[in-house]
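Lecture notes, continued. The same structure-token format from the folding unit now serves as the input rather than the output. Read the line below as a description of shape only.
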């Protein structure tokens, strides 16, 4: 543990470090070690950490502070040694978006294709959904496995999906939840440290990063997404990992559904060879990179073909079924998705004019979903897994006045009017179709 490696300056105090960052100072490695170790051990209260996070969000972190923070968070717990498991260990992590559910598709594809995927994921963050929350919509699914159980699941089916624990990335576990509730997410340094501390603790050989950009991403501007990607790729490479980052579009939701159980249904659709094209294409592409970096394939084309074969043969779907069962979930949801929690009521969001969808304010979709119970306002809040947004229109589609843009699946009326206004306002409608189509994959960093 970090603490035993350090001798702290006895006079170091959180309140001074908050002031230093507030006043745009640069922290030393020792100061960051002190903050992270003390917070992880419960010696710094949430309110002081929250103040430091906000000061950091406003002032930013230098490259050297980002490196120190990543290492301090990584060493807040253990680094898994999975060398006793056969083959290469490869993972993927996304910076988060609306309807972004590729992890649940590519983990079974890549495991079925012969690599091991030890995935430590997060919960919903800001307006974006979290893999762990989505998995927990499957009745019984346990994301809190002990490390021994995690290993045995990985050995048996080649994939395992858990959250940060008291043993693995405990600093991220606490800081992540605090950032979600304090609007301190969209910071390059904080995101890099959060993602890379978890991923480097996994004992992987290679990592594929999906860095989202656009109105539904934390990095709205492509140049910021590129910078974040470069810093994360560089951090991973310095630690001896193969890392590549795909900058991908998040200017509209990925797939046709956002909301926990509805996203599981969409993943099962893709694993059954159906599902929305954008979701399927991105899942295949990310899987191909995982196969390639994991040396399972000699080229990306070979990787794509392997991913497609794993879907067409049903092997990926069966691997997902096995993974669900091993993590104590109800595997019957694969054939009977009606076993997943669903909302009681639904309402359509009609278009107010004729025209074409020219863009979306995608973050608003995520915020509307969170307001309906699909996200947290406070750390302690529970998620309603049944609420969902079903998107009927994509950018470039024609629309008629009165036609439904989206369906809201909800349980409580309380915030419905507001949510409906937000969903309607998220769609931009123009008299003509947009001339250019935004590519789903915008750029590759670190290849
Ligand atoms: N995903 C993470 O794990 N952490 C972040 O800060 C953002 C996305």
């Amino acid at each position: 543990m970090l603490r035993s490696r350090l001798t702290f300056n006895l006079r170091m105090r959180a309140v001074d470090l908050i002031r230093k960052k507030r006043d745009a100072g640069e922290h030393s490695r020792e100061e960051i070690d002190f903050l992270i170790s003390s917070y992880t051990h419960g010696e710094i209260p949430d309110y002081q950490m929250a103040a430091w996070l906000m000061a950091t969000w406003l002032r930013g972190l230098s490259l050297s502070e980002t490196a120190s923070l990543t290492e301090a968070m990584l060493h807040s717990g253990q680094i898994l040694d999975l060398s006793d498991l056969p083959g290469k260990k490869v993972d993927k992590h996304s910076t988060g978006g609306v309807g972004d559910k590729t992890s649940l598709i590519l983990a079974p594809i890549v495991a079925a294709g012969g690599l091991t995927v030890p995935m430590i994921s997060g919960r919903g963050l800001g307006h974006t959904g979290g893999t762990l929350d989505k998995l927990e919509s499957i009745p019984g699914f346990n994301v809190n496995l002990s490390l021994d159980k995690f290993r045995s699941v990985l050995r048996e089916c080649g994939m395992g999906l858990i959250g940060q624990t008291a043993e693995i990335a405990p600093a991220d576990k606490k800081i992540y939840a605090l950032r979600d509730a304090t609007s301190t997410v969209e910071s390059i340094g904080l995101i890099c440290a959060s993602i890379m501390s978890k991923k480097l603790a996994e004992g992987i050989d290679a990592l594929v990063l999906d860095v989202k950009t656009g109105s539904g991403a934390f990095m709205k501007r492509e140049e910021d997404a590129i910078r974040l990607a470069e810093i994360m790729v560089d951090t991973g490479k310095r630690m001896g990992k193969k890392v590549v980052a795909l900058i991908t579009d998040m200017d509209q939701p990925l797939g046709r559904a956002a909301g926990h159980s509805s996203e599981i249904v969409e993943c099962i659709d893709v694993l059954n060879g159906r599902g929305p094209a954008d979701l399927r294409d991105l899942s295949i592409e990310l899987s191909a990179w995982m196969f390639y970096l994991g040396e399972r394939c000699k080229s990306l084309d070979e990787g794509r073909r392997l991913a497609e074969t794993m879907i067409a043969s049903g092997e990926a779907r069966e691997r997902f079924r096995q993974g669900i069962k091993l993590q104590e979930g109800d595997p019957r949801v694969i054939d009977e998705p009606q076993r997943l929690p669903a909302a009681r009521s639904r309402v359509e969001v009609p278009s107010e004019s004729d025209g074409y969808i020219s863009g979306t304010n995608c973050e608003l979709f995520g915020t509307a979903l969170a307001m309906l119970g699909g996200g947290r306002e406070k750390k302690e809040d529970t998620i309603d897994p049944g609420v969902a947004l079903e998107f009927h229109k994509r950018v470039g589609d024609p629309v008629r006045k009165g036609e439904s843009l989206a369906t809201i699946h909800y349980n409580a009326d309380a915030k419905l009017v507001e949510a409906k206004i937000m969903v309607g306002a998220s769609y931009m409608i123009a008299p003509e179709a947009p001339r250019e189509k935004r590519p789903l994959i915008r750029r590759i960093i670190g290849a």
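Point for the exam: The pocket of uracil is lined by residues 95-96, 122, 125, 185, 190-191, 194-195 (CB under 6 Å).
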